[in-house]
Structures are given as C-alpha cells and as structure tokens.
Amino acid sequence: MSEEEKEKIKSFKDIGLCDELVAACDSLGWKAPTKIQVEAIPHALQGKDLIGLAQTGSGKTGAFALPIMHALLECHAKQEHKSAPVFFALVLSPTRELAIQISDQFKALGSGISLRCAVLVGGVDLMQQQIALAKRPHIIVGTPGRLVDHLTNTKGFSLHKLKYLVLDEADMLLNEDFEKALDDILNVIPRDRHTYLFSATMTKKVEKVQRACLRNPVKIAAATKYSTVDTLKQQYRLVPAKDKDCYLVYILTEMSGCTSMVFTRTCDATRLLSFILRNLNIRAIPISGQMTQQKRLGALNKFKSGECNVLVCTDVASRGLDIPSVDLVINYDIPTNPKVRHHLCQTLEKNAFLDYIHRVGRTARAGRSGAAISLLNQYEVEWYLQIEKLIDKKLPEYPAQDEVVKQMLESVTEAKRLSQMKLKEIGGTKRRKGGNDDGEEDIERYLGVKGKSSKKVKRK
Ligand code: AMP
To answer: Where is the short sequence motif Q motif located (predicted)?
Structure first.
C-alpha cells in the first residue's frame, strides 16, 4: 500500500474489516485504526503471516486480534448452520498479566459476536481452566508452560486444528526460559497455519524464529529498533546512593496528583519501598514475581482503580501491561538482567537497554504524554550515556530542589528505619509460621488499607 493510500485511510471499514468488527471497535470508542493496525490488518486479511515491530501502547493487540476474529467470522459464515470453529487461534504471552489483558481485549471486541476466549496461565487452578476448555473456546491466550500442562493433562484438548498462532512480546518468549515449552507447542500444532510475531524490540532470535516459523511474512515496523515516543519526557537525576529514597519521595510528592510506576531491581526492594512510601502517606503498592498470581492481580487492580497511585515493581511489570493512565515512570534502580550478569557482560547490557525501553514504554502510551525519571548514582552515569546514544536523544537533568530534599531526610530516614524493623519482624513471624509472603497483606496490616500513615512518622 502506498503512503498516499495509507494517508487516506480513516476508518476500520477502509482497512477491510467486516461490519460486526467495525461496530465492535466503535463500541470501544476506537475511532480510527492506529498506525500498526493500518499497516498490519490489510495484509493479515489477505492471509499473510506478519512480523510486527510495534511499541507497547501502539494498539498491537487489536492489530492481531481483529484479523483473527474476521477470519473466524468468515469461517463461521462458510459453515452456515454449524457453530464457529473452536481452538481457532492461540496467543502466547511471556507474562500472566499480559495474557489476561490480551484476553480482555478479545472479549471486549468479541462481546457482540459471542466470542469465547479462555486464559491458560500459571498460578491459577488447573481445574477451573479445564472447565473453560470444556466450553470449547474459539481463542486461547496463555503462557507457554501452562499451555503445555493442559496439552499433556487435559483430556480432549488438542490444537491439531489450530489456524492462527500469535507470539506476543516475541523477543521475551524466545528466551531460554520458554524454549522447551515453545518447542513442545510448535510440535503439536499444524504447520499449515497463519503465524503472527509481535515484538516491541527486534532481536537476532526473533529474526531466527521468523525464518523458521513464518511463510514469507510481511514485516511491519511501527517503531524503530529502540525508539521511544516523542510525547515521553525522559530525564535523569544524579543522586548519592544513600539519598535515593529521599529523592524518590521528593519526586512522588512533587507529582502527587499523578499515577506513577517505580522500578526496582529486586522483589525485596519493592516491599521495603512500598512500606516506606505508605509510612509517608503515599499510596504505594508493590508488585513482583515473588507474589502469588492472585496478589499480583489484586495489586494491579488497586493501581488501575486508583486506590493506589504508585506501583512499586520489578521488571515483571515492564512488559505488555496495559495500565492506561501512567503519568510517570521512575527508575529507582537502573535495569540489569540478573540471569546473565555473571556470564556475558554484553548480553547483560543489551537486555538492560531493552528493559529500559520497555519500562519507560509504560507511560506516554496511545498518544498521551508522560515522563520518565532515572535516579542515578555516580557508577550508573556511563550506562545512562549509552542509553542516550541508543535512543539518539540527549536527556536533561530533573530539576530537584536539593534544599527541599534535605528537609525530608529526617522523616524518610525514620520511615525507612521503621519499615526495616517491621519487615524483619514480619519475616521472623512468617518463618516461624512457614507462611508465604508477598508484602501486600503485611503492608495493609501494618499501615491500614487506605494508606493511613503511621502516627510515629511525621513529614516536615
Ligand atoms: P496495546 O498496544 O494493544 O497494548 O493497546 C494499548 C491501548 O490502546 C489499549 O488500551 C487499547 O484498548 C487501545 N487501542 C487499541 N487500538 C485502538 C484504537 N484504534 N483507537 C483507540 N485506542 C486503541
């Protein structure tokens, strides 16, 4: 399609979608297709395989969900009185939250056409998912490990008639962690199928799998290799390591009307920081890979509903989660990828750069503006200079008023002391009871559900 033709496209009807789906987009308030949708959907409707390089927030879920649903409706129409084919499409995602989110979009788009969609992710009762499979869903969205579990253990479940396979966040799915499960899945699905590969970043592995899995795919790039959107304001602040908490509190106080995500390196840090922030009357909630699935979803919902406006997270939340109204991303710790830290320095750097792009991609989504601030100590400056090189932008310093930060030092130090003490205490109790700890309950018990501040800590 020529640039001129693309320019002329204004509606979902123009890109060839059937009336039911045009109406579905309309009911979700989607007025016009996004760039990736304009690029991808016409090719997909012609039956081509796709490899889409698109940023989070670009509307990429719609870019693969709509053509799949279009094909499903066509199939149904051809079969006349018979019902629509089941187990028609499989969408794989690296994280549970993203899988749930993708399924929510399928359900929202498919509500008018009785679309059935099942989510198969870990951390949720197998039986419940077997019941969902027994209802013969058209679409299955899942994480690779749990999907293999069902392929092995759930009677009557097979994907031998699958028509569409989507790998979302493909670069992450192609990590070693998923290799075995992914191979197992590829071995039991038909070769004669459509395959869509979507990724926010293009890696060598994605290219390799593309060659192995896709038949003459059309490549669509709605993002350059490492781009960040222009509506995102990225800044850094050099801080002494010991004062990081204080600067964090300062920024969150300055931006108190905003929704923010604070990224830390470890699960323990998410808990400690949330304790400290809650202690200072900031409505923070942690989310990390250490928490149970139920708790992770609970935390996410509290954040989405606005009950908490600061989500303190590890990189588990940097990929794919659609939290529409994040105004600010704070890199409390710069990203590092612990899995490869000891082996390959270069890989470490590369993964850490990608993590940065994904983290800051949590804000300034779907055309909105947003800010990202990285708190750096003297050892991290070099890394940040490389980020600037990578995204080809010179990034300014965040203008914190050091005097005001200093005034906060005392109460932040006290909040930290109390939080550490409390965590130690809880840790001891948990160990004695053998309990599973994810931080959230402790915070609520300790500080009160609505984020009441501890009476012992006063802010200046
Ligand atoms: P995604 O990149 O798929 O995670 O989508 C990001 C957000 O954009 C989601 O909340 C979608 O509901 C929304 N979205 C997707 N397509 C459109 C569109 N054409 N117009 C408006 N919003 C959209």
So the answer is: 10-38
